[in-house]
Structures are given as C-alpha cells and as structure tokens.
Write a structure and sequence with these properties.
The complex is a heterodimer of chains A (about 300) and B (about 300). By secondary structure, chain A is mostly helical. In chain A, about 80% of the residues lie in helices and about 0% in strands. The longest helix of chain A is centred in the N-terminal third of the chain and has 48 residues. Chain B is mainly alpha-helical and about 300 residues long. In chain B, helix 3 runs parallel beside helix 6 and helix 3 packs antiparallel against helix 8. The chains are: A mainly alpha (about 300), B mainly alpha (about 300).
Chain lengths: ~300, ~300
C-alpha cells in the first residue's frame, strides 16, 4: 500500500512526470548522437569489407605469383597478364615527382609564414594559399595536359604529350598547402622561449628557424609530409587526364605511365558488368591503394601523437 | 684595445654581416616560393579564362551536351550537380554535426571514443576513389540503388563526413566552458545547453566547415566516375514538384545524372580541340563556384569571430 501511495504521489506530481519525460528525451537524444558518431566506424568497415569482398574472387583465378611477378598489366587483353608492379611503379613515380615539388616548397613556405612574415601578411596569404587545395582536381588535370605539358615540351622536345612529369609537377603544386599548413601549425606550436633563447644567444633568424624550430617541430612536419604522400598516392584526376594510360615498370618521367587510380578511372568509364574481370581488377587496384594509404596514415598518426606527447 | 681584440671584432662584424645577408636571402627565397605557388594559381585561372571565356554565353548554360562542340552546353551538368549536392548536404550535415556534438560534449575518454577518433582521422585520409569503389559495390550492386542521383549524393556525403565532423568539433571546442557551466547551474539539461548555447555560438565555425566540405563535393570527380555517372545526358531529372497529386515526387532521386566535373573530364579527354574550349569554359564555371564558396567560408569565419568575443 505504502509503495502504491508513493508511486501514486510520484506520478500525480506534474513536476516529476515532466522530469521523467525530460530524462527519457535526454537519453533518446544521447543515443541518437552516439549512433551518428558510431556510423563513421561502420563506414570504414563498409569500405574495407566491400573492397575485400569484391577483390577476393580475383585471387581465386590469379595466383599471387603472377600478380606480383608478371611483366605486364594487361587484364583486359586476349592473353591477360596481371603484373601489379606496373601500376605500383607508375603510382610511385608520380608521387615521387609530386613530393619533390611539394616538400621543399611547402617547407620553405611554412618557415617563411611562421618565422618571417608579419601576422597580417600571414593572415592574408594562408587562406590564399589554401585555395590551391580547393581547386577541383579535374581543373588541375586540364591545366597539366593543356598548359604545363606544352610549356615543358618547349624545353624538352622529346616529352610525350601524356607524361608523368607534368602530372607529377602539377600534383606537387596542388599538395603544397597540405604540407605548408600543417608544418606551419607545428612550427608555431614550438614554445616562444626556445625561439627567444636562440635569438638571445646571437643566432640569426635563419639559424633559429632551421636549427631550433624545424628540429623541435619535426614530428609535426613529418606528419604533414606523410599527409602529402597519401594525398599524392590517392590523387586521381590529374594522373588520369595527364599521365596517360600505359602501365609500365619505368622511372622515366618523360614517358606516359599509369597509376592505380588512373587505371580504376579508365576501366570504370566503360560499362562494367558485375563480376566481370574488369570489375574485379578495379577492386584489386583499390585494395592495393588502400593498403598503401592506410600504412602511411598510421605512420602519420604515430608521428603526430609523438609530437603531442612532447609538448604537453 | 689590443691588436688581437681588434681582429676578433672585425671577425664578429663580418660574421654578423654574413648572417644578415643569409637572412635577407632566405626572406627573398621564401617570398619567391610563395609567389611561385600564387603565380601557378593565377596562370591556371587566366589560361582557363582566356580559352573558355568566349563560350560563356547564356546558351552554354542552357544547352544539353552535343556531338557538335559549338552546340554543347552544361545544362544537365549543373542541374545534376545541384541535385547531387542537395542529397549530399541532407545526408552529411546532420550526421556530421551530430557526431561532432557527441564526440565533443557527450563522450567520455574511453576505448570506444578513441577508436572512433582514430577512425575519423583514417577516413579523412582514404583516397576519394576508394569511396567510389565502395559505393559501386555497396550502393549500386548490393543495395541495388543503381547509377542514380541518390547513389552519387550518398557517396559524396560519406566522403565529406570526416571534414564536417572535424570542423564541428573544432568549432565547439572554442566555446568557453563558463558558458556551459552557467547553463547547467541554471538547471538546464545537457541537450538544452547544447541546443540553446553551444550550437548557436559555434554555428559560424560549423557553417564554415560545411561550406568548405560542399565546395569539395562539387569539385569531386573520381568517385562519381566509378559509380557510373553518365557523360551524355540530354534530359533533366524529373521535377520534384508536379501539378498533379501528390504534388511532390522523389523520382528525381532515382534518375540518371551527370555533374559538372564529369562533363569537363569528358570534354578534356576528347582529342578534338574544339571540345577543349568547352572544357575550359566548364572549368571556369566550376572554378568560379568553388572560389566563391571558399570566399564565403572565409567571410563567415571572419564575421562570426567578430560577433562573439569571449
């Protein structure tokens, strides 16, 4: 009876009914938000699972030995060969060219913005520089094919009209802001007293930048480099438009080449029946690409967490 | 002063002069580097404007693609882009903001939260074409959604989700904790605090992130090629509003489509030079859109920073 009475009074009191409704509402909202946050994990699983599932049948037909050691990558020909190294070689060639532009220029830009430029100049130039990363990649592809390649052909007449060089160079310019922005953040996170200490000992601005600031911020800078690498590995439209469609194991930047991503674009432009060999091979290329980028992402995160520990 | 001291003073002076020269030199090198990047950007815009400008006429915006370059236009492309981005926004904004709010305001520092955080960083690093492959396997063939606007919109939605989550979290983090404490001390619940205070105060930052993410989605090409955007579409999606009941229709979600970047890619990859002019014109339109959106984002950030001072 007593319990009943207590319950009754609890329920009849409008305030506590309101409280219960409110608590239920809070719980509901919390659960919905949690589900949203969790969905990103599901997306990752979705990506990995789909790629592996669709690529799996390929390896039941093609042995790993052929996959790694065939001389050519011609999966759609009469006598198909599946030498993935041809595509990997193209991917790494363009990435290498892009990095040899983006890393030096990005680092110098970052040092300049962080240590030399006044705060007003920096506030203006940083967003402008970030526009480089905002330009759609298909526009960069157009630029590489119809502006940079003809320009380079004036200097190197032997340059073929589709080549790894101009694709890589343009990709490099596109990646500069990724490198410079993160590096600059890392450099500005270096405590001011290190800077002041070095300058007080009579070091010049340049010496301070490269002997104190850059080494102290190096893990942050390195993670910017890693981000640049994974951008370059996964970049698609520039290489699909300007680098050509000929997969081959070669380090000659003047020739046409093909990357993993460009291969995927080339094949998926045609009509792709589910389960055909073309369909399977684009997933295989996708899995290889995903492996590379995941490895580089993980290295990047390791390096970054190392930096965060250092300055806490 | 002994003669030895004199020598060392001269040496020091020389040394200082040398260092100053190096400093000045690096200043010039840094400026040149920055200028190089900016000159590249400018020459890209100017080159495209010079080749494309003559094609920017009203009929270019309202013609369908054609085999004859001078008759081809971008009507189906920009309408398609608009529809796809609409689906993308409807999917990515609520999901992204909700995730950001959960991670910043609700989650405790535990294993699961850490997994989610690492995972979001990883997602942001996955190449966009991988999302396209996933969408082809999952949306097109597994869920049987076909090569339609809804597939494209969802694909791009997943792609920009990490950007929205990360910027939402950063925006929320700038709201000082005394705002929360004041709200709680007046008896507000968590959600009331979030809805009435945290979200309004961080809306500038969130909006900036959303605009940047959408401009990325507009320019994205590769994932849509894999899910089979068509390049030659001479009709528009079904109108969402009709004169007969039930007046609104979702049929447009299931229509085939093409988007601006794909139209441009198609024109660039043709050998005839006349089509390259069209590509430049389409590129100019695309570039104008992304630069305008990015300008808007910078403006929003600036406006809101002025509005709230803590």
């Amino acid at each position: 009876m007593a319990v009943n009475k207590a319950l009754k009074s609890e329920f009849s009191s409008p305030q506590s009914v309101r409280r219960r409704i409110r608590d239920a509402k809070e719980f509901l909202i919390r659960s919905i938000l949690f589900l949203c946050a969790t969905s990103s994990v599901l997306i990752t699983f979705g990506v990995v699972w789909t790629l592996l599932k669709e690529a799996w049948p390929f390896f039941q037909e093609v042995s790993l030995k052929n996959f790694f050691f065939d001389k050519e990558w011609t999966p759609l020909f009469e006598n198909p060969q599946y030498g993935i190294l041809n595509l990997i070689s193209g991917t790494f060639l363009t990435t290498l060219i892009a990095l040899s532009v983006a890393i030096p220029l990005g680092t110098i830009t970052a040092v300049f913005l962080s240590e030399y430029a006044s705060s007003r100049v920096r506030e203006f130039l940083k967003p402008v520089l970030e526009l480089l990363a905002a330009v759609p990649t298909v526009v960069y592809g157009y630029f590489a094919l119809l502006f940079v390649t003809p320009l380079l052909q004036v200097i190197f007449p032997s340059l073929s009209s589709f080549n790894a060089l101009s694709a890589g160079l343009v990709m490099g310019v596109m990646i500069i802001p990724y490198v410079s922005s993160l590096s600059e953040d890392a450099m500005r996170a270096v405590p001011v007293y290190l800077r002041e200490g070095s300058l007080a000992l009579g070091a010049s601005n340049l010496q301070t930048s490269f002997k104190v600031i850059v080494p102290s911020a190096f893990s942050g800078i390195a993670s910017a480099y890693v981000l640049g690498i994974s951008r370059a590995l996964g970049e698609t439209m520039v290489v699909a438009i300007a680098a050509g469609l000929q997969p081959k194991i070669s380090l000659n930047p003047f020739e046409s080449t093909q990357t993993l991503t460009a291969y995927i674009v080339q094949v998926s432009q045609g009509d792709l029946p589910h389960g055909s060999i073309g369909y399977k091979t684009i997933y295989v290329a996708g899995v290889v690409l995903l492996c590379f980028t995941l490895i580089f992402n993980m290295i990047g995160q390791k390096v970054r967490s190392h930096m965060e520990k250092k300055y806490k | 002063m002994s003669s030895l001291d004199k020598v060392s003073v001269i040496n020091v002076n020389q040394q200082v002069a040398r260092l100053k020269r190096q400093d000045a030199l690096f200043w010039i090198v840094g400026l040149m580097t920055l200028l190089f990047a900016l000159v590249t950007l400018t020459s890209l815009i100017v080159d495209m404007a010079i080749s494309g400008w003559p094609r920017i006429t009203q009929s270019f915006f309202f013609s369908f693609p054609s085999r004859f370059p001078e008759r081809a236009g971008i009507y189906s492309a920009w309408v398609g882009s608009l529809c796809v981005v609409l689906v993308t926004a409807m999917m990515a904004i609520p999901l992204g903001v909700a995730s950001g709010v959960y991670l910043e305001e609700y989650s405790k520092k535990n294993f699961w939260t850490k997994i989610i955080e690492i995972n979001i960083l990883n997602l942001a690093g996955i190449p966009s074409i991988t999302y396209g492959l996933m969408a082809l396997g999952f949306f097109v063939y597994y869920m049987k959604l076909g090569q339609t606007i809804i597939t494209a919109g969802m694909t791009l939605g997943l792609l920009i989700l990490p950007i929205i989550i990360v910027t939402t979290r950063e925006a929320i983090r700038t709201v000082p904790s005394h705002i929360r404490e004041a709200s709680y001390s007046l008896g507000a619940t968590k959600w009331q605090t979030v809805w009435n205070h945290i979200l309004p105060y961080s809306s500038g930052g969130i909006l900036t992130g959303v605009v940047i993410a959408l401009s990325r989605a507009i320019g994205e090409t590769a994932p849509l090629i894999t899910v089979g955007a068509l390049t030659f579409i001479a009709f528009l999606p079904t109108s969402p509003i009709s004169a007969e009941p039930p007046f609104v229709s979702g049929q447009w979600l299931h229509d085939p489509y093409t988007v601006m970047p794909i139209q441009m890619f198609n024109w660039v990859s043709r050998p005839q030079e006349e089509f390259h002019v069209n590509a430049a014109a389409a590129g100019l339109v695309l570039l104008t859109m992304t630069l305008l959106l990015n300008g808007a984002a910078i403006f929003i950030r600036y406006r809101f920073r002025k509005k709230y001072k803590w």
